[in-house]
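[STRUCTURE TOKENS]
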Amino acid sequence: MRTRTVSGGDGVEIYVEERGPADGRPLLLIHGFSQCRLAWTPQFESELADDFRLVAMDLRGHGASGTPRDAYADSRLWADDVRAVIDGLALDDPVLVGWSYGGLVVSDYLATHGDGALGGVVLVGAITEKGTSDADRFAGEEFVALGPGLESTDAERSVAALDSFVRLCVEHDLDDAARYRALGYNAAVPPHVRAALQGRTVDHEATLPDVETPVLLIHGEEDAVVGPAAARKHVELFRNATLETYPEVGHSPFFEAPERFEADLRTFVAGL
């Protein structure tokens, strides 16, 4: 395991871990709302790490990255964080893999810096917009109902909402080890960060059709956080996209169905 930090947008420190051969095809893994790089542990511990250079970043406000007070609304900041990782680690033709809110961060990057430096894009249970009518339409009702608790500064209320959120991220029950591990790194994110992320208004619908790099869309058919309708919109929005749906899988295909996820990822990268 190799770790480092890079200076992202406006100088915010972005923490990065990587595993795998330094000359392998880089896969830059970008986690979702209130999570951290540890969400990708199944992939770091899989055979993917034998063949690919796996790079997982903590988004600003998450994990071991910097948690500024007011630095979350501007798409350029998120885009610059991603570019700082690509440039700082000298990632050659990386494939961006964005889960959930990570899809919005990938979209921020694409809208700001384009796709010229990328080999491909993978969006997993992802969103590409926030604060729009479609964004509201795609958000699961149970997830939306958790909003006040997720933004609360009352510890008891916040942890209860986060526990519900962690459970909502999968279709089937988590064992205690997985549940409490995820709850821990979710709880480490300050409430002001979750509020700022949820309060963004951003729409990339006008720019994403210009993306020429291949795009793989992966979505669980039972996703209760981001409805599968989002993926059906994305497959029409991107000019070069394919969609894989996972039956009996919720919001976390890479965790719930890691063997299929990793096989689909390998097939996609092989075709680039």
Summary: The two ends are 27 Å apart (CA to CA).
